[in-house]
Amino acid sequence: MGTSKIVLSAAVVLLAAAGLLDLYQITAAQAQQGDPYQIETQLMRMQAAAAALPARAQVGYVSDMDVATPRGLLAFNAARYALAPRLLVPGANAEAAGWVLGNFSQPQDYQTFAAQRGLAFSKDLGEGVVLFQKGAGK
C-alpha cells in the first residue's frame, strides 16, 4: 500500500504541474496578443473627457462612425466603458444631456460639425475626442 500511495501522489503532482504549464502558456499567448480591441487605447484617449465631464452626467454621443456598424459600436462601447459612471447616449439630442462627446476617427472641422447639429464647440481634447455643449449653437 505504501508504494501505491507514492505512485498516486506522483501522478497528482505531475498532473498539477502539467496544468500549471498549460495555464502559463495560455497566459503568455494572451499577453503577446495585447489588446486586440484597443480598449486600453480608448481609456487613454478618453481621460481628458472623463476629467472634464461631471461624474453623474448624461452625455450625448456623436461620431463619424455609425453605431449600427461593428466598428462604430465598438468605438461607442469603448467610450461608454471609459466614461463610466457617466451615461453615454447615442445622438446629439439625447434628453437631459447638456454635454455631447464627439469621438472621431478622421480629422474634421469641429466648429462646422457643431453648427450643423445645433451644438456649441467646447473643446478639442486631441486624438479625435471633442466636447460640445448642447443647445448653445442654435
Which helices and strands appear, and what pairs or packs with what?
Blueprint: H1 2-33, H2 39-45, H3 47-52, E1 58-63, H4 70-83, E2 87-90, E3 99-103, H5 110-116, E4 119-126, E5 129-134
Parallel strand pairs: 1-2, 1-3
Antiparallel strand pairs: 3-5, 4-5
Helix pairs in contact: 2-4
Task: Write a concise synopsis of the structure shown.
This protein is about 50% helix and about 20% strand. With about 140 residues, the chain is an alpha/beta fold. Strands 2-1-3-5-4 form a five-stranded mixed sheet.
Number of helices: 5
**Rg:** 24 Å
- Total beta strands: 5
Mean pLDDT reading = 87
- Quaternary arrangement of the chains shown? single chain
Morphology call: elongated
Main pleated-sheet profile: 5 strands, mixed
Task: Describe the fold and architecture.
The protein has two domains: 1-34; 39-134, no CATH class. Helices cover 48% and strands 21% of the residues. It has helices spanning 2-33, 39-45, 47-52, 70-83, 110-116; strands at residues 58-63, 87-90, 99-103, 119-126, 129-134. The N and C termini lie far apart (88 Å). The mean pLDDT is 87.
Essential attributes:
single chain, 138 residues, alpha/beta, 5 helices
